[in-house]
Task: structure prediction
Amino acid sequence: MSLISFPVLDLHDTDSPITNRPLRTVRIDVLDEPLREETEFKGIVGQSSTLRHVLQMVETVATADSTVLLRGETGTGKELVARAIHYRSRRKDRNFVKLNCAAIPTGLLESELFGHERGAFTGAVTQKVGRLELADQGSLFLDEIGDIPLELQPKLLRLLQEREFERLGSTRTKKVDVRVVAATHRDLEQMIVEKQFRSDLYYRLNVFPIFIPPLRERPKDIPLLVQHFVREAARRMNKTVHTVSSETMAALTQYHWPGNIRELENVIERAVILSPSSVLHVPSRDLQSRITPGCGSEKLRTLADVEREHIRATLKETKWILSGPRGAATRLGMNRSTLYFRMKKLGIARPWS
Result:
């Protein structure tokens, strides 16, 4: 697996547009050359051990043709991982079709997925081919699968089990050969308990789960992502930005990024717009609001932050053993399944280095 390397750093002093005093800066070399990693996993940037583990799992499952369930917080790049699975499979020359289950009104979701016949409902003046048929022989990416309504879940379950379906308003059964990759940021196990998600559908989707780590758990990748997003934004805007001050990079690295990679990309795009020279300019007020405790500023901690820290500390003490009399679950006063659910919900993954 080819993983990107950060270019040789050219460190020098310059007048910072942020603080008006000399700062060490990091040069991002050769904006017009593509990152090497994009030839292997397009758009997936990083070299941390946690990301490397994800890509190893992608390599493993891509050729197996099994259903994959991608878990992770919003903005962690689940769609990029889904595309990587498709383009490393035997279906790579066929369609990769995406359907966001949360972005389409409930009344239209069935038609979008399965298609409909003319006259199936008011307004159905023509026949419509659904995303499922478009993905035949290829891959279907069902994003935000946790938002699929209960009444549609049995039909999706039948598709996964029998590889067959009917268009809305039709009695003719159609067969398809499609590889399903689903993704969600929601706690499906808790949704099952609350009767919002079918357990049999969950087991059909959860054949090969892959957890995508949040950006705060892969800080080594932030400089590489900054490089990537600066390069892309500068190219789109026809600007020359190839230098990042070390203080700016430190602030970006220390922030916990609740919006993950998507938030980082938006911040860098705004910074490129505001940069009056070749040095990336991030306003000081933005930096101060993004620096975490211990870096010269205060940051309010949520209850989830406290719980995450406590669970992670307990797991470290027990060497990541969950069950048993000396396991983390016992120390935390909960059963193993509850601890597992809380770890998933809080984005806690075992380090692989």
